[in-house]
């Protein structure tokens, strides 16, 4: 574990890595190592592996649920102390913890996994529990199963875990004594609705809100049929601004901005376009007498008329004066 912490320290202090780091620890780690790991990690996790102690005794005798819970308790205390310090700087410890359980390696049913997850959520405020389907490898121990469980079972456990965390469902509502495992054909929400047909039809606008469990973190107070219909969102009450009623100062205009035009006060002025700003006039010198026109064709006509030659008379010699011929 010391090498893992050294890698995280190098990433933070040498390479200045500011991204997400998730460190895994062991229950037997000392408090000093846990404190140092929390300085460089965003999340710390201790894998509980299996939900029942008898399964751990059979497959991993070195693992103990009691020691794991004690380590989670110590980490939870450090996280709470770090969040209690109101400082603008980065917290001195990780901000959350999680765990992982392996599905399909023992005879534990889905109710055991969900019951253990609910216990960890309520007591240690875990951010989440990960479920990993067992995958057999060649030349493994004879105590391990030879066939992997269906991946849809892992998917159903995540769906049920979501109902527990965000919608306040309890384990006995998702699984029953007769059916301790989740249905692989339908999701847990539909399974609950089919088992509670007497609840429907339900007016979601008048139904009382569902009371969340202590370990759940509901986004809003929702009824049990929230998965069928979405209740209308209520707007928060209007709160006047603290500067309401006081004259507001107009922001200063920059040199490249124009003052705002006034809005029409009645319907007759509504269709009128706003007045255009008058262009700035600049003084210029009068044109030189020699440059009468910038058009060269007009210059030619002016010279012709000055000598008495008309460009529109076909016989120009007869129309010209004698002193010019």
The termini sit apart by 120 Å
Identify low-pLDDT runs: 218-235
Percent helix among the residues? Answer: 25-40%
Q: Count the strands? A: 4
Q: What labels would you give this structure?
A:
325 residues, alpha/beta
Describe the structure.
This protein is of the alpha/beta class and 325 residues long. Helices cover 33% and strands 6% of the residues. The chain is built from 10 helices and 4 strands, in the order αβαβααβαβααααα. Strands 1-2-3-4 form a 4-stranded parallel beta sheet. Helix 1 runs parallel beside helix 2 and helix 5 packs parallel to helix 6 (151-166). It starts with a helix and ends in a 6-residue tail after the last helix.
List the helices and strands and how they pair.
Elements: H1 2-14, E1 22-24, H2 31-40, E2 43-45, H3 53-59, H4 65-84, E3 96-103, H5 110-124, E4 128-133, H6 151-166, H7 171-174, H8 188-195, H9 296-306, H10 316-319
Parallel strand pairs: 1-2, 2-3, 3-4
Helix pairs in contact: 1-2, 5-6
């Amino acid at each position: 574990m010391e090498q893992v912490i050294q890698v995280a320290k190098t990433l933070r202090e040498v390479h200045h890595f500011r991204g997400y780091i998730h460190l895994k620890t062991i229950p037997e780690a000392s408090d000093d190592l846990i404190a140092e790991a929390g300085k460089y990690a965003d999340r710390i996790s201790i894998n509980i592996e299996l939900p029942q102690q008898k399964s751990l005794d059979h497959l991993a005798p070195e693992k103990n649920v009691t020691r794991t819970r004690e380590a989670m308790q110590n980490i939870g205390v450090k996280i709470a102390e770090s969040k209690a310090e109101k400082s603008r700087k980065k917290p001195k410890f990780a901000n959350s913890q999680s765990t992982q359980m392996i599905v399909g390696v023992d005879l534990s049913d889905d109710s055991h996994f969900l019951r253990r997850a609910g216990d960890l959520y309520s007591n240690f405020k875990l951010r989440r529990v990960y479920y990993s389907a067992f995958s057999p490898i060649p030349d493994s121990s004879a105590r391990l199963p030879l066939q992997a469980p269906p991946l849809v079972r892992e998917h159903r456990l995540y769906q049920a875990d979501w109902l527990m965390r965000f919608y306040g469902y309890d384990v006995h509502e998702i699984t029953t004594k007769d059916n301790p495992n989740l249905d692989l054909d339908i999701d847990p929400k539909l399974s609950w609705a089919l088992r509670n047909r007497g609840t429907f039809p339900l007016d979601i606008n008048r139904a009382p809100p569902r009371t969340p469990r202590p370990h759940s973190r509901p986004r809003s107070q929702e009824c049990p049929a929230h998965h069928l219909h979405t209740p209308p969102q209520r707007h928060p009450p209007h709160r006047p601004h603290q500067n309401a009623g006081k004259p507001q100062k107009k922001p200063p205009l920059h040199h490249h901005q124009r003052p705002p035009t006034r809005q029409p006060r009645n319907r007759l002025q509504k269709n009128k376009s706003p007045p255009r700003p008058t262009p700035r006039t600049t003084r210029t010198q009068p044109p030189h007498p020699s440059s009468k026109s910038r058009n060269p064709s007009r210059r030619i006509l002016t010279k012709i008329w000055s000598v008495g030659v008309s460009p529109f008379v076909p016989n120009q010699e007869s129309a010209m004066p004698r002193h010019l011929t």
